[in-house]
Amino acid sequence: MLTRRQFTTTLTGGLTGGLAAGLVSPGRGGAQGAAIRIGSIFSYTGPAAFLGDRMKRSVELFVEETNKRGGINGRRIESIIYDAASESTKAVLAAKRLIEQDQVEVIVGDGNRSDIGLALIPTVQRAEVPLMSVSGATGLVEPVRDRAWVFKSTVNDTEVVARLLDFFKKRNIKDVAMLNDTGAFGVSARDQVRAQAPATGINVVYEEFGPADTDLTTQLTRIRGTSAQAIVCWTVTPAGVVFLKNAQQLGLKQMLVHGFGFVADRYMQLAGDAAEGLVLTSLKFPIAEQLPDGDPIKATILDYKARYRAKFNEETDVYGGQAWDGIGMVAQAIARGGGSERAKIRAGLEEHIHGYRGVGGIFNFSPQKHWGLAKSDVVMIEWRQGKFRLVDL
Amino acid sequence: MLAVDRLPGRVSGRALVGFLVAVAALPWLLPNQYLVHIFVVAGVYVTMAMGLNLLMGYAGQVSLGHAGFYGLGAYVSAVLSVRFGVSPWLGMPVAAAATGALAYVLGIPTLRLKSYYLAMATLGIGVVLHLAFVQLYPVTGGSSGLAGILPWDIGPIHLTTATHHYLLVWAFAAAALWMARNLVNSRVGRVLRALGASEVAAEAMGVDTAAEKRRVFVLSAVYASVAGSLYAHYITVISPEIFSFLFSVVLVLMVALGGIGLYWGAVIGAFLLTVLPEALRRFGDWELPLYGLTLILVMLFLPRGIAGVLVRARPVGAPAGAVSVAAPGASGRPVSAGAARLLEVRGITKWFGGVRAVHDCSFDVAEGEIKAVIGPNGAGKTTLFNVITGVYAPTAGEFRFRGTPLGGLPAHRLARLGLSRTFQNVQLFPSLTVIENVMVGCERDAPARFLGAAFALPALRRESRAHFERAERALATVGLDGVGLDRAGGLPFGQQKRVEVARAIASEPALLLLDEPAAGLNTSEKVEMMGLIGRLRTLGISILLIEHDMHLVMGVSDRVVVLNYGEKIAEGTPAEVQRDPAVITVYLGEDVAAVA
Question: Which residues of B touch A4 (CB under 8 A)?
Answer without folding.
Answer: 301
